[in-house]
UniProtKB/TrEMBL annotation:
The gene is srpx2. Residues 164-247 form the HYR domain. Keywords: Angiogenesis, Cell adhesion, Cytoplasm, Disulfide bond, Repeat, Secreted, Signal, Sushi, Synapse. It is found in: Cell surface; Cytoplasm; Secreted; Synapse. This is Sushi repeat-containing protein SRPX2. Disulfide bonds join 136-163, 278-305. The lineage of its organism: Eukaryota, Metazoa, Chordata, Craniata, Vertebrata.
Length: 451
């Protein structure tokens, strides 16, 4: 609605005769409009809107693309990477001003934290669309996403990765080795250098041995030695090598006829010593022992066991006894005469025990009667009278009553019997007090030989 008011009109009359001026007034008013008319079609009602780093989209009430007519509404949008500050929509008002203001502020994401043992590089710093690539120091690998992008909303894509130690340590074992057993042994001492482990992430590592330590004794055969190591992230590395201990062996040494061999160590290994032994009634001829050599051969020549021969016609007692030294035990039987009842009873028991006496390396000497008809014999072999008298004196054997003297292999007087003794009792004494361990073992093997 238009507003108006009336203005009075003054009419002036000029009178020339009297030289005076007369003013007359009327109460008439003329209507006049002081408020401008709103013109929606005026193209430049408001100033042209602008938005740095953004876009203004306007619509006029009467259509068209004019941006400054009265009533025009403009939508404000910012370019990617910018955030709108102010009014999102403004309108051109009658006072020729816009209903609000806005501007575009550049958007950015927060500063990414550093990751232990790693770093990152970004294409545009922390601005929108900037891509940050993560890398790790040697020995570590990215656990998670390798990159993050600053998104339009001002937040980073994905989650922050970490640098994880995924590379296992490195360890190298010494080479495998062959060791020959030492002479006379079935084992060998083996030494090696302890391996050293390295890791790209950790400076100090503990190397764990699984098996015997260096410098240990290893038996014949194959032995696997293992080492393992863990880094602080529990990554594991391991290595192994083989120790082979070889025992060089000679061909098995056969026993001689009427004899046997006893060997040290395992019998036929390098350095083993084998001794020759003969059965009762036989004596060794040749070498007493042989040694297995490194070339897998035996030194010397084999021995043999021949039937024992002794000389009954020697003139002295010492020469007679020397034939039995360390070879045979002697059982000296003395009686006043051949018809002595004790002698006859003992003689029967000795004849039945002849095989058992041989197994125990015992030779029986008989001294019978008195001079000048005194005789001494070993079975059918007669002894010299001087030897008979020497035996009686050395071992104090009376010719006036029955007695027996048991001598060991060294000629020592071990036991005396003044009455006949059964073979079981005699053998029990010999087995308990006069046989060494080796002889006992041999006796067990041949105990049934006499039955």
């Amino acid at each position: 609605m238009l507003l108006s008011h009336f203005v009075p009109v003054f009419i002036l009359y000029f009178k020339a005769a009297s030289g005076t001026t007369v003013y007359d007034t009327y109460n008439d008013f003329v209507e006049e409009d002081y408020t401008p008319q709103l013109d929606y079609k005026h193209p430049y009602w408001c100033h042209s809107p602008g938005l740095t780093n953004g876009e203004v989209t306007c619509r006029s009430p009467h259509g068209g693309h004019q941006q400054t007519t009265l009533g025009t509404r403009c939508e404000m949008t910012c370019d990617r990477g910018y955030r709108l500050i102010g009014r999102r929509s403004i309108q051109c008002l009658p006072n020729r001003r816009w209903s609000g203001t806005a501007f575009c502020r550049k958007m950015r994401c927060h500063v990414l934290p550093l990751i232990p043992y790693g770093r990152y590089t970004c294409t545009q710093g922390f601005m929108v669309d900037s891509r940050c690539e993560f890398t790790c120091v040697p020995g570590y690998r990215i656990d998670g996403e390798h990159s993050r992008t600053c998104m339009h909303g001002g937040s980073w894509s994905g989650a922050q990765p970490v640098c994880a130690d995924t590379d296992p340590p490195k360890i190298k074992c010494p080479p495998s080795r062959l060791k020959v057993a030492e002479p006379g042994k079935l084992s060998a001492t083996v030494n090696w250098e302890r391996p050293v482990a390295t890791d790209t992430a950790d400076k100090s590592l503990e190397v764990i041995l699984v098996g015997p330590e260096s410098g240990s004794e290893f038996k014949e055969g194959v032995h696997v030695i293992r080492y393992k190591v863990y880094d602080q992230a529990r990554n594991r590395a391991a290595c192994k090598f083989i120790i082979r201990v070889e025992v060089r062996r000679c061909p098995e040494l056969p026993p001689p006829l009427h004899g046997y061999v006893t060997c040290s160590s395992d019998g036929n290994n390098y350095g083993a010593t084998c001794d020759y032994h003969c059965d009762g009634g036989f004596e060794r001829r040749g070498t007493s022992s042989r040694v297995c050599q490194f070339n897998r051969g035996w030194d010397g020549d084999p021995a043999q066991c021949d039937a024992m021969e002794f000389k009954s016609d020697v003139k002295t007692t010492s020469a007679f006894l020397d034939q039995f030294y360390e070879k045979r035990r002697l059982l000296i039987v003395s009686a006043p005469n051949i018809s002595d009842s004790d002698y006859q009873m003992q003689n029967i028991m000795i004849q039945k025990a002849d095989c058992g006496l041989d197994l125990r390396h015992v030779t029986v000497i008989e001294l019978l009667g008195s001079p000048p008809r005194e005789t001494g014999r070993i079975k059918e072999s007669l002894l010299n009278s001087e030897v008979i008298e020497g035996l009686r004196q050395i071992f104090r054997i009376s010719r006036y009553y029955f007695s027996m003297v048991l001598l060991d292999k060294l000629g020592m007087d071990r036991e005396r019997f003044i009455t006949p003794i059964a073979s079981d009792e005699l053998f029990s004494y010999i087995d308990s007090f006069m046989l060494d361990e080796e002889e006992r073992e041999r006796l067990e093997l041949h105990r049934d030989f006499c039955e």
